Amino acid sequence: MSVRLAGNVAVVTGGGSGIGAALAARLSREGARVAVVDLDAGNAEAVARTLPEALALGVDVTDPVAVTEMVDRVGAELGPIGVYCSNAGIGSGAGLGDEVDWARSWAVHGMAHVHAARAVLPPMVERGAGAFVITASAAGLLAMMQSAPYTVTKHASVAIAEWLSITYGGSGVSVHCLCPQGVRTPMVAANALGEAEVAASGDILEPSKVADDVVAAIASGVFLILPHPEVHDYEVGKVADRDRWLAVMRKLRARIAAS
Ligand SMILES: NC(=O)c1ccc[n+]([C@@H]2O[C@H](COP(=O)([O-])OP(=O)(O)OC[C@H]3O[C@@H](n4cnc5c(N)ncnc54)[C@H](O)[C@@H]3O)[C@@H](O)[C@H]2O)c1
Q1: pTM of whole model > 0.90?
Q2: Catalytic site includes residue 150
Q3: Domains in the chain, ordered, with CATH?
Q4: DSSP annotation of 135
Q5: Burial of 252 (0-12, 13-18, 19+ CB in 10 A)
Q6: Of ligand 1's atoms, which has the minimum distance to the CA of residue 44?
Q7: Is the distance from the beta carbon of residue 38 to the nearest atom of ligand 1 less than 6 Å?
Q8: pLDDT digits over 131-185, tens only?
Q9: Which of 84, 150, 168, 234 is catalytic?
Q10: Quick count: other Cβ atoms within 10 Å of Cβ 239?
Q11: Å from CA of 107 to ligand 1 middle
Q12: pLDDT, tens digit, for every residue of 1-17?
């Protein structure tokens, strides 16, 4: 079942930058009233100012109380939430990372999706309509060689999205999981995700292209959103022969390290 965007209410977390800002703009163009949510309240405000009927909220999505309050406020000011894009993410943690990298990565790429699901899915199920979109990454299906915390917690993002789809997917609510490779955003520009690795793994897409793919998936109901379609083949190759896939990844890692 597809969700009507015109006249609906959408929340985009991480909406102050990159993919989130593009999603907010695209959903607004479809006629949704958008709540732009970001840890950086100034960036959220700057994005919301460019959109009609938008609300900017400075919220830490890892804080369950703040997420519940945000959802209540959006409901009161814009109306019942029909689309929730749980998109905020961080690129911290080179190599095996430290304790702080892991704690932050689990909080943002794991529990933030759970806090959001608890707050918005029951009312969506009650109304029998809604779309819940988790931004994971191709790293959640494959690997981000430069970062164990990013890779592992993005696998958690994918698993949460799958679990939510299994549990809520048949009730008029659609769950989607966005898994891009490189996208031209401040996260990549800051080298937080390993510029050489991103460049070696294919085209770096514009955030607006990714936002188009999300809107198309909400319309069609498809779960997995792959702006880089080759990721499908890579995953099929991984599942078909894990040892071969690991050998290929080791070679790629060595090539990037030498470059
Ligand atoms: N850019 C890429 O190549 C790429 C590839 C795959 C997946 N992703 C994922 O896409 C999503 C968006 O990333 P982006 O590339 O647009 O990066 P970005 O850095 O431009 O935007 C991320 C936004 O999330 C916000 N944020 C971080 N922690 C937060 C928190 N605790 N509460 C609220 N907001 C928070 C940041 O303030 C920032 O505005 C992330 O989940 C990222 O992991 C990005």
Answers
A1: yes
A2: yes
A3: 9-230 (3.40.50.720)
A4: E
A5: middle
A6: 39
A7: yes
A8: 999 999 999 999 999 999 999 999 999 999 999 999 999 889 999 999 999 999 9
A9: 150
A10: 10
A11: 13
A12: 678 999 999 999 999 99
